[in-house]
């Protein structure tokens, strides 16, 4: 249409996503988002519905990009829960080590700011964390252990993922992050082994 600026929505989302990822929601001003995307305030509102709506779309974009990698890693080890968790954490560590993206994790960064997010955006972040837990829980499903143990392990793995993101953001070296991941995998393996060999409780 004549006089109307055309742009690639996916490219703009990627650019805005990096701003939220690097700066966090609070410091991702409309001016910063506009500078990154090349869009004016009117275009941001007209195309994405404003800062909050753009933020949620960026969260979904982030979850789709890395979620696909997580699913692929987990699917490759569907019969080995411990190896699946190792592969999952390998993807997390690879993302953290990637110099082409901001440090940390957009979801972890956003979760840390939940108190200042609006109700809808805060709920969106919580939903993405729940999706991570369900993804890990599904990878553990083949283990012959009490479902409550598997639920707890899934929550533990998600906590480790978020902790790795925070530590990397604070500048922890790769060797330390990998040490945390190894200990997490050992904990998962030991917990599953104990849960599998434990005698059933008396009624």
TrEMBL record:
InterPro entries for this protein: Homeodomain-like_sf (IPR009057), HTH_TetR (IPR001647), Tet_transcr_reg_TetR-rel_C_sf (IPR036271)
Residue ranges of domain HTH tetR-type in the record: 6-66
Highest taxon above the source species: Bacteria
Protein name: TetR/AcrR family transcriptional regulator
Ranges of the DNA-binding region feature: 29-48
Keyword annotations of the record: DNA-binding, Transcription, Transcription regulation
SUPFAM superfamilies from the UniProt entry: Homeodomain-like, Tetracyclin repressor-like, C-terminal domain
Key word Transcription regulation present: yes
Species, as recorded: Actinomadura yumaensis
């Amino acid at each position: 249409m004549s006089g109307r600026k055309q742009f690639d929505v996916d490219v703009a989302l990627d650019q805005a996503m990096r701003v939220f990822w690097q700066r966090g929601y609070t410091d991702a001003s409309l001016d910063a988002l506009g500078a990154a995307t090349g869009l004016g305030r009117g275009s941001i509102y007209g195309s994405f519905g404003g800062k909050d709506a753009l933020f949620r779309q960026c969260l979904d974009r982030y979850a789709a990009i890395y979620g696909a990698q997580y699913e692929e890693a987990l699917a490759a080890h569907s019969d080995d829960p411990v190896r699946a968790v190792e592969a999952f954490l390998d993807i997390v560590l690879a993302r953290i080590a990637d110099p082409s993206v901001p440090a940390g994790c957009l979801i972890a960064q956003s979760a840390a700011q939940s108190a200042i997010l609006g109700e809808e955006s805060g709920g969106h972040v919580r939903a993405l964390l729940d999706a991570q837990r369900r993804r890990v829980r599904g990878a553990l499903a083949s283990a012959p252990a009490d479902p409550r143990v598997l639920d707890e392990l899934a929550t533990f793995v998600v906590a480790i993922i978020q902790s790795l993101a925070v530590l990397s953001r604070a500048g922890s070296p790769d060797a330390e992050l990998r040490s945390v991941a190894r200990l997490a995998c050992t904990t998962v393996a030991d917990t599953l082994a104990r849960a599998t060999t434990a005698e059933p409780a008396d009624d």
